[in-house]
Amino acid sequence: MKYLILALTLSFVCSCKQTNDKNIRLVTVDVAKDYQPKEVWLQDIADIEYIPLATSDSMLVNSTPSVVSDKGIAIRGGKIGEILLFDKQGQKLQGRICRRGEGPEEYTSVIFNIVDWQRKEVFIADFTSLKVYDFSGKYLRTLSRQSIMDLNIIDLNTDYLLCSIYKEGEENPYAPYFLLSKEDGKIDTLSIEIPRCIASNRKILWDDGHTSSAYGILPQLYNCTDKIWLTDVALDTIFVMHPDQHLEPVMVPLHAPTADQEAPLLFFRGMNDRYAWVSRIPRQVTVKMSDMAANREKREKLYMYDRHADEWFEPIYRNRAINNRETDPKYIDITSAPYGYGLIQLNAMDLVEAYSKNQITDEKLKAIASQLHEEDNPVLMVLKFKM
């Protein structure tokens, strides 16, 4: 493992030195800039496929987004703590896990779950542990008993999870990234160092007039189902991690947050060969506790980049398949699909209503909607982005 870490360190250094290589499509974004709104028709940017999820008493799902891969579809079930594993057509169950409880082989909640389709294992994190189950729900082992709220954990390969750990307020250099063995929970720290913790300074204003401070920490890792990016803002760069674990710089903010103490922080939201998505977090933020409690806190705008046009804009998504503005999506889920794909979940109730009003113009979707009932599971709209 020490040789792996050394190789990763060397490739990290080499990647940093090659940012001017003409083959590296480095994207630069002015995080402080406001970009103009632009209507984006889904059918213009992607080829569309629809996957209806089968519905039965044993296959009811909630509104949590699915995770789609070429091996199957994972989604939270209708019962608390339930995870359903569909085949890739969304019609049959490959597995079901529902082990919520207080016992040593159970989880108290599902903070997140990772499915390894090759190992046929599901990694489930509650607040205090990371446990492993097979597709039938049988408990296999516990990998970690560390507070999950301090960690980012994503799937790396068949042997390891890639993790990062938060150190709020840390002023000294530290290495946040490490590998976690899927077999025995062994940890191997990667020699990727950041100079200090960088976060937005959040001032919370309470109803009685007093204030308190908190950190607004951005994710150190971002992934789709088959690609990983290192996104800690203290790196001053977004890096993609390739399967051989060498790093390549793919995006930089115009003003580096390590050098400019007032520069907004880049919130990376995904990319593919044609498009990229980002948001921003101001360095200084004041919020009212009453707004936070009522979910009225200001949401930063999402911006989209088109490499072909070399253009940044605020996307307003439109869907030609349904002639109803109320059903236009607010965002495209990039995390829950493979690289180059996106995902939108269509509610069965909305589709049934649109079909009854003759608002569905796409023939494939119309045929699916004609067979739906309002209480059915959702239909997944899979976008394969055009080049």
Q: What do these coordinates show?
A:
The chain is 11% helix and 38% strand. Residues 1-23 have low confidence and may be disordered. The longest helix has 16 residues, at 2-17. The chain is built from five helices and 28 strands. It has a five-stranded mixed sheet with strand order 1-21-20-19-18, with helices on one face. It has a five-stranded mixed sheet with strand order 2-26-25-23-22. The chain has helices spanning 2-17, 42-45, 289-293, 348-356, 363-369; strands at residues 27-29, 37-41, 46-52, 67-68, 73-76, 82-86, 93-98, 112-116, 121-125, 130-134, 139-144, 151-155, 160-165, 177-181, 187-189, 200-205, 211-216, 221-224, 227-230, 238-241, 247-253, 265-271, 275-281, 284-288, 303-306, 311-318, 341-346, 379-385. By secondary structure, it is mostly beta strands. The radius of gyration is 22 Å and the shape is globular.
